[in-house]
Structures are given as C-alpha cells and as structure tokens.
Amino acid sequence: MQTFVNVFLGFFIFEFVGAAPITDTIIYDSEFYNIPFGELPHAFAFDENKQSDEVETEIGTELPSVIQESYSSAPSTEETEDEASTPKLIDGSSAQGSGVLGPQTQDDLPTCLLCTCLGTTVYCDDRELDAVPPLPKKTTYFYSRYNRIRKISRNDFANLNHLKRIDLTANFISEIHKDAFRRLPQLQELVLRDNRIRQLPELPSTLTFIDVSKNRLGRRGIPNEAFKNLDELQHLYITDNNLDHIPLPLPESLQALHLQNNNIQEMHEDTFCKMRDFTYVRRALEDIRLDGNPINLSKTPYAYMCLPRLPVGNLI
C-alpha cells in the first residue's frame, strides 16, 4: 500500500511541474538588452546606409586599384605578339634621304613605293626607270631588270656597305663610271648582261660572280689584268661580246668560264696551264665554254694538260 502511494505522489508531482508555466525572465549577458534599438550607442548601432557605403567604397575603389596595379605591372602580351608578327619595313636611311619607305626618287616618290622592298632586298624590275633610284642604306640585294637605265654614275651605289648583289639585266647601259662598284666592300655578284657596255669599270676584289654577257666589249672593253686580283671569283660569263682574246690572267679560284659566241681565234699553251711546270693541276676550273668561236682547239693540246676537263668548242 505504501509503495502504491509513493508512485501515485511521484506521478502527480511530475504532471504538476510539467504543466506549470515558466515565469522567470531569461537574462542575457548584456547590459543593453532592454534598451530600444534607436537608443543604442552609436558604436553598437547597425547603420544600413553606412554599411552599404563601405561596401561600395571597398569594391569600387580598393579592388580596382589592385587590378590596375596588376595590369600595369604585367606585360601586354597581345601587343607584343602583334609587333612580332608584323613584317619590318626596310630602313630608309641613306645619304639621299630617309623614311620608312626609303629615300625620295627623282619622281618625288619613295623608292619602296616606286619599287618593292622586302627585308633588305629591293626589286625595281620593269618600272621604266631611266636611272638607278636612291637605295636605302641597308640594301643587300638590288634588282633593276628590264628598265631604261643608260648610265651608272659614280654615286649611284655610294655608301651601300651591305650591298652583295646588283642585277641590271636588260637595260640600255652604255656608260659606267670607273668607281661605280669599286667602293662596295661586300659586293659578291654583278650581273650586267644584255646591255650596251663598251668598257668594264674597276671591279672590287670581293666578287665571286660576274656576268657581262651580250654587251659590246669588243677587243678593248676589258682592261689588262682586269680579273687578276679577284681571288674569290668563281664564275665569269662574257658570252656574245665580240671578244678576240681570252682575258688573262685568270684567278686560281675560277670554276666556270663562258666565252661562247665571240671572235676568239687562238689560244696559247699557258692560257690555263704553266708551260714549265708539268705537275701543275688546275683543279677548280672545270667548265670552259668556247663554242661559237672561230678557234680550233685541237691545235693546242698542251694548253689543257692541267685541266680536269677539256673545254667545249670546235676540235676541227
């Protein structure tokens, strides 16, 4: 009985406690809990407008400054790539003038507008020119074929210290100043074929290739020993010039000598070889063309003993 009473009282007390309302105030650890929002101190008040302004300042001022700094310090790869892919125009500086498109010609046009300039090569083919145009100072290769040029003056190629090749094929050139080419320190190839040249000028010792075919040199157009000091000369073409002799002496470096269609009638035993040295061999000279000349090669058999190959020409 006593046990039943204890259980009943325990259950009654539990039900009473669970149904009783909570009347105690919940105390927060803040001295401002019961103060209205508008009366809070400024340091603890939340100003929506101010917060918004700070965000705008932070985003609109500070962030772009960082971005701007990073952009200013980083190289512009797009411009660099564009500059690298853009073809460079020839340097127009020269004694006659300067400019991106080269010096001015006598027609008041830049050379690289009248002609075509690619790198350091100048092409003036078939432009009806009657004189050599002023060339950019760094010109390396110059082509002016099929024009009406009649004269090469002393200063046409002055100060062109990089010039390696001149090609004036098929013009009307009849006069060349004696110093027109001599002062070119790097000139290697000189092509003057199909003109009206009667006298060769002085030639620079740097030449490796000369073609003066189809001109009017005749018997006096080539000075004595004109090729003697050309120690690097490898190819010499003097066809169709009405020559009556082989121009001597010829440099040891010579590999090809073309004299077709001239008026050469005789050859000596020391023209190519050494009469008193039968052990001498001229190994470089492998191409001699004498066809089209009134000469009988069979009359001078000892003239070819030092050569690796016989000349081409009439053997009867």
UniProtKB/TrEMBL annotation:
The name this protein goes by in its record: EPYC protein
Pfam family, one: LRR_8
Lineage top rank: taxon: Eukaryota
Presence of keyword Secreted: yes
Organism the protein comes from: Corvus moneduloides (New Caledonian crow)
Keywords: Disulfide bond, Extracellular matrix, Glycoprotein, Leucine-rich repeat, Repeat, Secreted, Signal
Matching InterPro entries: Leu-rich_rpt, Leu-rich_rpt_typical-subtyp, LRR_dom_sf, LRRNT, Mimecan/Epiphycan/Opticin
Residue ranges, compositional bias (Polar residues): 68-77
